[in-house]
Design brief:
Strand content: 15-25%
Radius of gyration: 22 Å
Largest sheet: 7 strands, mixed
Strand order of the largest sheet: 2-8-7-6-5-3-4
Mean pLDDT: 96
CATH topology of the largest domain: Aspartate Aminotransferase, domain 2
Number of domains: 2
Helix content: 40-55%
CATH class of the largest domain: Alpha Beta
Shape: globular
Order of helices and strands: HEHHHEHEHEHEHEHEEEEHHEEHEEHEH
Low-confidence stretches: none
CATH architecture of the largest domain: 3-Layer(aba) Sandwich
Distance between the termini: 47 Å
């Protein structure tokens, strides 16, 4: 493993990120500041489309567009033919989830950290298909209960669907351990890695998941409107297809057709090529840095932020569990999260409001209606953390 990022490297990374010049950005779990190279890639491609034509420009960049699949496969240790490029993690998750041939009384096991879109999918399957789902709660220390999880598996268990890193909490789910249990019982495993890719090192072979849904805009630092879906080769034929066109098929006659023999069967032909190139550039940027190295940096900054926030009177940090990530959640006594967010925005500090609906089961369990979410990335600095805490100290009194 390479050493942690040096101060010189961090300053170079900030110089390669225009947004750091005027903004302290702690909303990376919402949408990171993209590197200049990603922005320039998208803009340059659009200019070429305007000058030369869309199809013609796509042909010119056909190798670079194709290489995006190769880069993604390297990032998560998958095969190239196991990657489909989609608009966002929700699209990928729904394609995978709704592709499963559920029967009445089939069971799904999930976690209390499941994202709202996924929870809606589970509820929809319950209402329309008669599927049941079980929620494995975290223990009193904030850790996923592996023993209770395995005990919940029964003959009707059809799917394990969990979110690796939740939207409104700093904890993490032990996805590798869950994968070992899923393989032991030969159960399909769908992982929401929306907050994970570019944040923590991910290896789908080590995790053992069958399907993995990812967005580009968060820790991967890709443009909004990008994402990808990983589907293990052995599982692809088991999933139903919903959106089909000439791109998704190997051949078509007047009486029949055959789907492609790779994960691109889950795509459609028409998509934004400029954004696809931007996604590829973001993945390349992450690979060049090394996610193991940037993960060390994120852990350091998040740990420091939690320590400093706990020193601010009136602030309560809500993150707990053995595995913590770059998302730091807190509340201010007597002040709603939206007010805190707006006060910080006046000083050009970006944070987000984590609403109860985003991770409804977890938030309800912990009696939280909303929280402030400050999510760090490797290009943030200790000085920015100090500024955030000082601004909080100065605004808590006037906000209350």
């Amino acid at each position: 493993m390479k050493d942690i990022l040096t101060e010189q490297e961090i300053q170079q990374l900030r110089a390669e990120t225009r947004g750091t010049e005027k903004t302290i950005h702690f909303n990376n779990a919402g949408s990171s500041l993209p590197p200049n190279a990603v922005v320039d890639t998208v803009i340059d491609y659009l200019y070429e489309e305007a000058q030369n034509g869309g199809y013609e420009t796509e042909y010119t960049y056909r190798e670079e567009l194709e290489n995006t699949y190769s880069l993604i496969s390297r990032l998560i240790n998958a095969r190239k033919d196991e990657i489909a490029i989609v608009e966002n993690a929700s699209t990928g998750w729904w394609l995978a989830f709704n592709g499963i041939d559920f029967k009445p009384d089939d069971e799904i096991i999930t976690c209390e950290m499941e994202y709202v879109t996924n929870l809606i999918g589970l509820l929809h399957a319950q209402k329309t298909l008669g599927v049941k789902f079980k929620v494995i709660p975290n223990d009193e220390h904030g850790n996923f209960q592996l023993k209770a999880f395995e005990e919940a598996i029964g003959p009707k268990t059809k799917l394990i669907a969990v979110t690796h890193i939740p939207s409104t909490a700093g904890g993490m789910i032990p996805v590798v351990e869950i994968g070992k249990i899923a393989r032991k019982h030969n159960i399909l495993y769908l992982l929401d890695a929306c907050q994970s890719v570019g944040h923590v090192p991910l290896d789908v072979e080590e995790i053992g998941c069958d399907m993995l849904a990812v967005t580009g805009r968060k820790y991967l630092r890709a443009p909004r409107g990008t994402g990808f879906l990983y589907v293990r080769k052995e599982v692809q034929d088991k999933l139903k297809l919903f959106f089909m066109d000439g791109f998704t098929t190997q051949w078509v006659t007047e009486t029949d057709f055959k789907p492609r023999d790779d994960a691109r069967r889950f795509e459609v032909y028409e998509k934004n090529r400029a954004l696809t190139l931007g996604l590829g550039k973001a993945v390349e940027y992450a690979l060049n840095l090394g996610v193991e190295r940037t993960w060390q940096r994120v852990q350091h900054l998040a740990g420091l932020l939690r320590e400093k926030l706990k020193e601010v009177n009136g602030v309560t940090v809500h993150d707990f569990g053995n595995q913590l990530c770059g998302i730091v959640t807190f509340s201010v006594d007597g002040t709603d999260a939206a007010t805190v967010k707006n006060k910080l925005a006046e000083r050009h500090i970006n944070v987000s409001v984590g609403k109860a609906v985003s991770t409804l089961i977890y938030m309800n369990k912990n009696h939280l209606s909303n929280i402030v979410r400050a999510s760090v990335h490797y290009y943030n600095t200790e000085e920015e953390i100090a500024i955030l805490c000082e601004v909080l100290k100065g605004t808590i009194g006037e906000a209350v």
